[in-house]
Amino acid sequence: MPVARRVTLAVLVALLLGVVVAAALVANDALAARQALTAAADRVPALEAALTADGDKAATPALTAELAAFQRDAHAAKVRSDGPLWWLAGRLPAVGPDLDAVTRISATLDGLASQVAPALLDARAAVSRTGRSADGAVDVSALSALADRVSAAHAEVTASQASLARVDGSALIPAIATPWAQLRSQLDDVAVAVTSVDRATTLVPAMIGADGPRTYLVLAMTNAELRSGGGVPGAVLLVKADRGKVSVVKEVAGVDLGPFQPVAKLDPESQAVFSQRPATFVQDVTETPEFPTSAQLAAAMWAKAEGDKVDGVIATDPVALSYLLKVTGPVDVPVPDSAQVVTLSADDAVPVLEHDVYAGMNLAAHQADAFFGSVVSAAAARLTDAHADPAALVAALAQGAAEHRVLVWSARPAEEKLLAATVVGGAFLSSPRAADAVGVFVDDSIAGKMSWYLDSKVELVQSQCTPAGRVDTIDVTLKNTAPADAGATLPWYVAGIPDGTFTPGDLRLVLRAVGPQGSPTPRLGRDGHVFGMDTYPLAGRSIASGTITLAPGQSTTVQVQALASHSTSLGGGPQPTGTLDIWSTPTARSGGLQTVPAAVCPTGGADW
Q: How far is residue 568's CA from residue 579's CA, in Å, rounded to a whole number?
């Protein structure tokens, strides 16, 4: 045999042996990697539950051991599915996509175990350890110290999402496709958590004055007279935050602020829906569901009336205040123009501030607003009380924020960019997360305080796949619970200022249903019949609007049908797959945000 042929044959044999050996090594590693991946994946649900637990439950010995085991198994899976041989194998025909997916899944789990989970758990523990310095200020140094680690965890999650997204799921065998899809869904949930924590570690220390004093305008909203974003501001306060200490500088009753020549010119679409009233009356700044707009208008009004330029605006309502009072304990508040002092607790704050000040204590409108402001001032003063647990205060604020009862805007663009995408940002029209949300908002069009008597329920009753895509059906049930003689027995400024267009005691509500961005106008029905409506465009959305009048004891159900966007119908879009955010007006009895399960459809996009 010629020498050249022998050499060629030897090379081929060597290559064949190399391939066989490589295949054997990859197969051996694949078996070990599968075992480690299975063990690691089985630990994810327990860690997910821990990440949503209260902070004081986030660092138990059992959980610490669970995290250590997760890290061990995830790292073993990564080691067994990484390296040059796996890189080459991942590019082979037939089996390549599956092996490449295993490598990416292993790397993702290792990143979650080594960087993301520890950072999130430590952040929750830091919140639970939030205490007070010697001078009584809230000490968030432990949270600040985690900022870099949480930012790195955020980057790791983003990179892992991009890595898994490069996998073609249709090319995978079921044994790989299923865990790949499950991990992508779980990673989306983790991304929401790590994004929120990243923003918190960045924003909270600065916004409570860690880097220098901040001043904020506080809008004390009353749900007794509803606007889309909550209630009318009954009182407006100027507060100062300096190195964790909060103090009230000034308070003004809402009726004593303005009216103004419009402090800004609203865009034509907003004017068509709301007129120029939000820029003229402080009571109407929350008529838009876009809180950044409400906040900027309120800040401009305050600057014109009081001469103060603020660093941000915070809005809250009596229900959120009651959550804080659970932590601080009762407050004593003097009644305006009286020697009487009222003790308010978490149990009675809402009925007193929403009803009794108007219908039971016989206060004039300006006195009721002043009383409301005094309550907020007293509660703010208690925030720095040594007996008020800072971690419990954070939990109370979070509860209010989750119901859209606590909203925050920053005058600093970099901070506002982070805030707008959070639950406290209230940016229904501009937040990417809200782009696929449906909004159902009500405005009380009678100048009174009858919204206290509104009993409302907003409920997703059907999420259905159609040739056009996913259609979500939402029932909005409204009832006027006022007594039959409300018009005769309630003060005129509660039952409504008579103008000949309504019967005192009635509720007259403007209901606006707002579809996802780019989707058609929602369809409305009322009590089984077509509901006549006006339609408007607003910031890339379509609004269906109608007026509903309810006499005492009357109720009605409005059915809203909204077509989801094409990407959301298919399970994409900015929201977690298979969910729908429903924004609504927070009332005295119902919160303003729900995230509910929704259908994922195989196709969508025809005419509706």
A: 9
